[in-house]
Automatic annotation (TrEMBL), chain A:
Protein name listed in UniProt: MG(2+) CHELATASE FAMILY PROTEIN / ComM-related protein
Naturally occurring in which organism (per UniProt): uncultured Rubrobacteraceae bacterium
InterPro entries tied to this protein: AAA+_ATPase, CHLI-like, Mg_chelat-rel, Mg_chelat-rel_C, Mg_chelatse_chII-like_cat_dom, P-loop_NTPase, Ribosomal_Su5_D2-typ_SF, Ribsml_uS5_D2-typ_fold_subgr
Region (Disordered): 276-295
Residues of the AAA+ ATPase domain: 218-399
Superkingdom as given in the UniProt entry: Bacteria
Lineage of the species this protein comes from: Bacteria, Bacillati, Actinomycetota, Rubrobacteria, Rubrobacterales
Pfam families named among the record's database cross-references: ChlI (PF13541), Mg_chelatase (PF01078), Mg_chelatase_C (PF13335)
Length: 508, 368
């Protein structure tokens, strides 16, 4: 009698996505005599509630019998909010184990996640890589995931990942009736630079390209300013291609974020992300959040490039929300129930027109804006955000004649090599890119001597550099020196860095 | 009698702020009694007055209280000058359409004055030239008159202030209204080293039509008007026209041919304006009557960096023209690698050979 009672409660181990991390969830299933029914408790959201119908039908359609008894499913810990359809598989397996269709011992040491379709097939889920990481942390030996997500999940290592096509396959596998090989990690196909996205395809604009190279080398944020059609977007798209290739650790982080947001494709991301949200993006769309928190564009661009085209058109509140991630490299979303963080280490690339009509200073088109309009337009971007920008580049429009005369441009590959070299120097010297330098560390690393010092103090006087402008020039000069492999910042490095300061369009 | 006249002019100045100056200059010839108390209906018979104007007129007649108005102004330290006052600037009496009243914060200097006007969106060269002119004139004791707008105006005032000289800003709004807001600091400096002047009473807004009108006062206060840089249809050209109407000398700074920003000022030159091709020569010409003698040579700030140029710098400088040029164009013209061009440009800028405009383009400095 006692034995029967114990047998009727079965436990299946599963995981729930929380931010980009997975927390353990235990699925307890009790099948007892009573009025037939099926209920789920333990703070489930709507998608989890609907699991009842999916699980019931999927079990029948897989050739098993859904128990005509009272079925109660508890998702523990009960205080954690559970969302999404990934509990379908553990619930179904738990029910089958509790009703005797599967030996209860089969669930031992295995984690499982997956969404069921009505025919008993398994659909892909969000955050498989994070789940695998969670399973490894929990000491689970095996993790069952939908087949689509297996290559992604397997990338983490330390836990055997099995891709399952159907509920039936899972039952047979756990009941030792079928042999399945652990999945192997697969990386996204493709080269780090997409064909047609090479720097060599952009004619002219050598100044802007040089600036982007410096930005890439020091992970500096950039504002490009120029009239429509000058090639700002084209240049921005090619920025990821000159960044050093993602390391394995970075790939895993990037994949975790993409997978958690539902943008994953079951494989490990290899290319640096490039995200270009439209300027109508909402605050939570850009920074992350929402009632079911999702990573925002700034997190989806983690370890890559976030490109904000037409910067002044973005809503002020959305841009304000970027300040903290730009500062800390992560987004913190606080809720009454919990606080979660998404990583957000990005190179921010912005573009803007010099004035509302876009043609101020253009050689062929007349600008129709008044001085006041131009000033207001430029003033729309908040000071604190501008403080996070290290380079300001003007991108003029080229005439056809000028474009035709341009000689062949350098390939991204060559630029990337120089950038990787400079990043390497920075990693060895201070363990972080130059853009992160501030305060005392900045003064140590960017100490100026001799000519460089003289030149710099002259510049501070004559160009009226502010305190922040001062630090900015130092940081950029350090990167320029790193690019040419020099240990000490020379006068010429400072001089080049001075070109990347902000110019004021109106007035004096 | 004099008080009555003064009341008439104050009344007219308020009326002018509403209806513009053509009606007002006609009324200015009438007796105070006629202006202040004749029913409007009667005036309508004698002059062409629009319905809107006559309504404004009536309203003003009802509300006008010259004593209270003057007390209020005095309390705020603001002087109001009408043609009956001795202190009303002499040169203004001779222009075709003198303002009925001039509100003054500070004091209008009684010296040789030169007006410097030009585009609000001037090029770096234009700004540079305006500042250098303001400075040079000021050093010779010449008062610089301008309109306290952005661009050339602001640079002219600043140049004069830099030399510690006198300068007058003529506004198109009440003198307690700071417009454009950006020039807040400059307004205060100009007030302390000269005067803020307007024909509009306190609190009047900077309406678009008031600016061309105030230009006649800029031209009127100065003996000479210089157009530093003006595109076609620029307000600076209106000032030049007022200057000609008032019999003032008009000069213009020559700009490169075909450049949009200089088309207006170049057209003035082709119409016979004085060619301002050399600042010392010009200053000498206008400051002859000034009491401050020319300073012996060697003034001006000594350039602290060695003025010699390295080979690359000289080569890059040859690639920078008098028309703004982007960095790419300079690099292409000289065939020098980008990082070196950037380095050379910054050094040239620090040495004062080139300047960078708001669009990141470089231009040779007219006055190193």
């Amino acid at each position: 009698m006692l034995g029967f009672w114990l047998m009727s409660v079965c436990r299946a181990r599963s995981l729930s996505l929380f931010g980009i991390d997975a927390l353990p969830v235990e699925v307890e299933v009790d099948v007892s005599s009573g009025l037939p029914g099926f209920s789920i408790v333990g703070l489930p959201d709507a998608a989890v509630q609907e699991a009842r119908e999916r699980v019931r039908v999927a079990i029948s359609n897989s050739g098993y019998k859904f128990p005509t008894k009272k079925v109660i499913v508890n998702l523990a810990p009960a205080n954690l909010r559970k969302e999404g359809p990934a509990f379908d598989l553990p619930i179904a397996l738990g029910i089958l184990a509790a009703s005797g269709a599967l030996a209860a011992g089969g669930l031992e040491g295995a984690g499982m996640v997956g969404e069921l379709s009505l025919d008993g097939g398994l659909r892909g889920i969000k955050g498989a890589l994070s789940m695998a990481e969670g399973a490894r942390r929990e000491g689970l030996a095996r993790l069952l995931v939908p087949e689509r997500d297996a290559p992604e999940a397997a990338a983490i290592g330390g836990v055997e990942v099995y891709g399952m096509r159907t509920l039936r396959e899972a039952v047979e596998f756990l009941g030792d009736c079928a042999e399945v090989c652990p999945a192997e990690a697969a990386v996204e196909e493709g080269r780090p630079v997409e064909v047609g996205e090479d720097f060599a395809d952009v004619a002219g604009q050598r100044y802007a390209k040089r600036a982007l190279e410096v930005a890439a080398a020091g992970a500096h944020n950039v504002v490009m300013s120029g009239p429509p059609g000058s090639g700002k977007t084209m240049l921005a798209r090619r920025m990821p291609g000159i960044l050093p290739p993602l390391t394995m650790e970075e790939r895993i982080e990037v994949t975790k974020v993409h997978s958690a947001s539902g943008e994953g494709n079951g494989k490990l991301v290899t290319r640096r992300p490039f995200r270009a949200p439209h300027h109508t993006v909402s605050t939570s769309g850009l920074a992350g959040g929402g009632s079911n928190p999702r990573p925002g564009e700034v997190s989806l661009a983690h370890h890559g490039v976030l490109f904000l085209d037409e910067l002044p058109e973005f809503s002020r509140t959305a841009l304000e929300a970027l300040r903290q991630p730009l500062e800390d490299g992560q987004v913190t979303i606080s809720r009454v129930a919990a606080t979660l963080t998404y990583p957000a280490r990005v190179t921010l690339l912005c573009s803007m027109n010099p004035c509302p009509c876009g043609y101020a200073g253009d050689r062929r088109k007349v600008c129709r804006c008044t001085a006041g309009q131009i000033e207001r337009y430029q003033g729309r971007i908040s000071g604190p955000l501008l403080d996070r920008m290290d380079l300001f580049v003007d991108v003029p429009r080229l005439t056809l004649q000028e474009l035709r005369e341009e000689r062949l441009a350098e390939e991204s590959r060559l630029v990337r090599e120089r950038v990787s070299g400079a990043r390497g120097i920075q990693a060895r010297r201070q363990g972080s890119p130059n853009s992160a330098l501030s305060g005392r560390r900045l003064r140590e690393v960017c100490a100026l001597r001799g000519d460089a010092e003289t030149l710099f103090s002259r510049a501070v006087d004559r160009m009226g550099l502010s305190g922040r402008g001062h630090d900015r020039v130092l940081r950029v000069a350090r990167t320029v020196a790193d690019l040419s492999g020099e240990e000490e910042i020379a006068a010429e490095h400072v001089a080049e860095a001075l070109n990347y300061r902000r110019s004021h369009l109106v007035g004096r | 009698m004099e008080d009555d006249d003064r009341a008439k002019y104050l009344f007219l100045s308020l009326l002018q702020a509403r209806v513009g100056s053509s009606l007002v200059s006609h009324l200015g010839t009438l007796a105070p009694e006629a202006v202040l108390r004749t029913p409007v209906a009667e005036l309508v018979g004698r002059a062409r007055i629009s319905e809107k104007a006559s309504r404004a007129f009536e309203e003003l007649q009802r509300a006008f209280d010259p004593d209270r108005m003057q007390e209020g102004l005095a309390a705020r330290g603001i002087e109001v000058l009408t043609p009956v006052d001795e202190a009303y600037p002499g040169p203004l009496r001779s222009i075709p359409d003198p303002p009925p009243a001039l509100f003054v914060n500070g004091s209008v200097p009684d010296t040789v004055s030169v007006a410097l006007v030009g585009s609000r969106k001037a090029s770096a060269t234009g700004i540079e030239t305006a500042r250098a002119l303001g400075l040079a004139l000021s050093e010779r004791g010449v008062c610089v008159v301008s309109g306290l707008a952005l661009g050339v105006d602001a640079a002219a005032h600043e140049g004069a202030l830099e030399a510690g000289g006198l300068t007058v800003g003529v506004l198109g709004c009440g003198i307690d209204v700071v417009y454009p807001r950006r020039n807040r600091g400059l307004f205060e400096s100009v007030r302390r080293h000269g005067a803020l002047v307007s024909e509009y009473s306190l609190g009047e807004a900077p309406l678009a039509w008031r600016f061309p009108a105030r230009n006649r006062i800029i031209a009127g206060l100065a003996g000479t008007v210089v157009v530093v840089e003006a595109p076609e249809h620029s307000g600076a050209l209106i000032t030049a026209r007022h200057a000609l109407d008032a019999g003032r000398d008009v000069w213009a700074v020559p700009g490169p041919p075909g450049v949009r920003e200089c088309r207006g000022s170049n057209a003035l030159l082709s119409d016979g304006a004085g060619v301002l091709w050399d600042i010392p020569e010009f200053v000498e010409a206008v400051a002859r009557e000034s009491s401050v003698p020319a300073v012996g040579g060697g003034s001006g700030d000594a350039n602290p960096l060695p003025s010699g140029l390295e080979d690359t710098e000289a080569a890059v400088l040859s690639g920078v023209g008098f028309e703004p040029k982007g960095v790419d164009a300079v690099a292409k013209r000289t065939g020098i690698e980008m990082p070196e061009v950037l380095t050379a440009l910054a050094l040239l800028e620090l040495k004062g050979f080139v300047s960078r405009d708001g669009l990141g383009s470089y231009v040779r400095r007219a006055v190193p």
